[in-house]
Amino acid sequence: MLPSHAPLLIVPIRDRRRRRRILTIRNIAISMLSVAVVIAAISLYNGARHRPQGEYSHLLGAQATLPNGATPRKDDIITEGPPVYQGPSPILAAPAAQEQKH
Questions:
Q1: FRET pair for 71, CA 20 to 30 Å: which of 22, 32, 44, 52?
Q2: How far is residue 65's CA from residue 72's CA, in Å, rounded to a whole number?
């Protein structure tokens, strides 16, 4: 007997959903995997595109030098003494004194 292209089941299998399913677990997994691959590819591309050693920035080819051999300005360091205790705040001292009287 020759193989036929007819299905083996006589009872038709009907899906309870009539519309085409687009948002399936398989499609979500494929899209998440493709997004992860794209992010990894971008990350590897940016990592491989580093600047050569010795270059200072994207605008300048080398580190900026000071004009006319000027030296950088030296900042003065100011030191202060220890803080001086000035007593309790008058706003807080009056209610505390009233509570001690009672």
A1: 52
A2: 11
Structure pTM? 0.38
* DSSP string for the chain: -PPPSS-S-SSPP--S--SPP-S-HHHHHHHHHHHHHHHHHHHHHHHHTPPPTT---SS-SSPPPPGGGPPPPPPPP----PPPP--S-HHHHHHHHHHHH-
Cβ contacts of 61 within 8 Å, gap of 6 or more: 55
Which of 13, 32, 14, 36 has the alpha carbon at shortest distance from 23?
Answer: 32
Tens digits of residue pLDDT in 3-29: 666 666 677 677 676 777 888 999 999
